[in-house]
Here is the input.
Amino acid sequence: MTISTQQIKDLREATGAGMLDCKKALESSDGDYEKALEFLREKGMSKAEKRSDREASNGMIDLYSHGDGRVGVMVEVNCETDFVARTEQFRVFAHEIALQVAAASPRWIQPEDVPEDLVVENRAAAAEMAAAEGKPDNIIERIVEGKLAKFYDENCLLRQEYIRDDSKTVEDLLKENIVSTGEKIVIRRFARWELGEAEE
Here is the structure.
């Protein structure tokens, strides 16, 4: 099947992948755009995994103030080289993370960062509620896992739906940027302040 230049261009614009990768993806999926997207996403994920053990000590800190100064956010995003840290793409990505933190109020970056006692507490509460509703023992564990997954999705930055595109998570966005820059990128830390909130 013949793949048109326009098809390749459209896929490249949507994914940021190289022209040859886009052509290969379209050829392997017989010109099916959705299958080609999935092909590139899977390839990108494996590339991102390979970069996970590299050192990321460059990067930037992005500051964002929202609602006439009612919400303030600071995020540190790291990459491997100063060259990538200075690119417009990297700066836009760091700012998008700051916007995400301002809008979605995550408490941690990933599930592994949640304190163990809080995980235990959430598990116990979910199990107690399911038991009180008369759920059979054999499905209580599934209910608990589901509630815990929802807790992570709401409170962990990488698990949250991306505010500009709810078909992907922040982790998907991160991996897309790792693939297109060719470097390891890490969201190192963030802080969010809201006017008048009580200190924990």
